[in-house]
Design goal:
Layout: H1 3-11, E1 21-22, H2 29-38, H3 62-91, H4 94-124, H5 131-137, E2 142-143, H6 161-178, H7 180-183, H8 188-193, H9 196-219, H10 226-287, H11 293-300, H12 304-326, H13 328-343
Antiparallel strand pairs: 1-2
Helix pairs in contact: 1-6, 3-4, 6-9, 6-10, 9-10, 10-11, 10-12, 10-13
Length: about 350
């Protein structure tokens, strides 16, 4: 069994594929900022993406409901007074027309003031999507189990290696963002260099292409094209192997992070031990004249400097692993060349 299949079987072989990963290049930064402000989980490392579709292209939140709902209600009330006022004026009931007209003017003024107060709040709301961006949301591209050939069910259900591989990639990404090291200040500069969302989405895009192309190739299989079909499929296998190596490198990166996690815990404990030791020594200096206490505590204390040097070494190794993990362009070019050869 290949390495990626062993990883898939161990990490996610017994769980149903539940993910909906956004391809970042399919929407702009303004849209993603608005979705983030709304609390939508759409990143590759999200524990479970919110399955929203229609709501993602609409402005359905508090400030929009207050502004639009209040303005619409005020306009309706104003129209309710204006209509009978107009009829009364046409019928010759001047006093009634003045009464309804005055009430309509008051409600219209109130509606205008309400809109002037709530409108800017709505327009400045970070959750708001502009009209232009609302039309662009429809073009957002998502990687889902179905797009990779997965069909649920025991009898008619089916799965593909591409879906299993991407399920593994998503599972690893979720584990990466849950590590202590990923959010630790010591990795702030490092994490900003590793674009996990782009990395996972690019894998999904390539795997989608492989699934679709393989289905098209299988569709032309007959006695005359059988040999060509097998040749094409063997080329696709080469491209798939390249994707598998990328996911395996992701797992190696995750293992480096877990090693760093352990060292960060030791460092935190050693620093805490140093603080407690200093406090104990302070108490002893004020309560007892024990000249040997100082060196005894220093001898027993965990050496924080030693842990720091270990962490420095792990960071260097992590950077090297990240270079391998980030080396997607080269591997992507190899995969694309294989696909281009088939299309040619």
């Amino acid at each position: 069994m290949s390495e990626w299949k062993s990883l898939w079987k161990r990490e996610c072989g017994k769980t149903a594929p539940i993910y909906r990963v956004l391809v970042p290049e399919s929407v702009n930064e303004d849209i993603m900022r608005a979705w983030t402000a709304r609390g939508y989980r759409y990143t590759a490392g999200a524990p479970s993406a919110i399955m929203l579709t229609g709501g993602m292209s609409r402005n359905l939140f508090r400030s929009s409901v207050v502004f639009k709902g209040g303005t619409a209600a005020g306009t309706a009330v104003t129209a309710g007074f204006a209509a009978p006022g107009g009829l009364a004026l046409l019928s010759g009931f001047g006093e009634a027309a003045m009464t309804f007209g005055g009430m309509g003017a008051v409600t219209a003024l109130g509606t205008g003031i309400f809109a002037a107060v709530t409108g800017p709040r709505y327009l400045r709301d970070p959750k708001r999507l502009s009209r232009k961006n609302r039309s662009k949301v429809a073009g957002a591209r998502w990687i889902t189990p179905a797009s990779l050939g997965w069909v649920p069910g025991r009898r008619e259900g089916r799965d593909t290696d591409e879906q299993r591989l991407f399920h593994l990639a998503v599972t690893i990404a979720r584990k990466i963002v849950r590590t202590r090291a990923w959010t630790h200040p010591v990795l702030r500069d490092h994490v900003s260099r590793v674009d996990l969302d782009h990395a996972v989405a690019s894998i999904g895009v390539r795997l989608e292409e492989l699934v679709n192309l393989r289905e098209e190739i299988e569709g032309i299989r007959d006695a005359g094209t059988a040999k060509s079909v097998e040749t094409y499929l063997s080329k696709l296998a080469v491209a798939f192997s390249s994707m598998a190596r990328r996911v395996e490198s992701m797992h190696e990166y995750y293992e480096r992070l877990t090693e760093l996690d352990q060292q960060l815990v030791l460092l935190a404990n050693s620093e805490r031990s140093r603080e407690l030791g200093d406090r104990v020594l302070d108490v002893l200096s004020r309560t007892a004249a024990d000249d040997s206490a100082d060196w005894q505590f220093r001898e027993l204390r965990i050496d924080a400097e030693s842990q720091s040097s270990v962490i420095s070494g792990l960071l260097d190794e992590l950077d090297q692993t990240a270079d391998d993990f980030d080396d997607f362009d080269t591997r992507l070019a190899e995969a694309r060349r294989s696909v281009d050869e088939l299309e040619a």
